[in-house]
Amino acid sequence: GNVVAALSERAVGRGRAHIPYRDSKLTRLLEDSLGGNCKTTLIANVSPAARAFAESLSTLKFATRAKTVRNTPMVNAGDEVDQQALLRQYEHQLAVLRAELATRSQHLSDSKRLLELEELHRRAEADRLQGLRALGER
What we know:
elongated, mainly alpha
């Protein structure tokens, strides 16, 4: 209430020098949206029920005051540069991860081949022992 009132007064030229954003946690969180560098949409929910008339009227008055608040959002000039640097950083990180994946895949295929060779060796040893037993029984 106080922040929107102060911002709406500022918009019509009667502005206060100080906007009390710190009066509530909500207005502190919404500081950029309420009076900063953001495009903001307000949705006022009202009820047609007679028992909610006072609350609906209060909501409409608040929405009317909030409607007069004017922000002038501007694109931050440094964002594009930051995005380019971030993109380069991500591309580098992606290349490093791809190289690591290729190395691990190679290691995994080498390990798989080693296990296959060990299994063939075990089978060959078992066949040799079976053959020796068969020869010993003759």
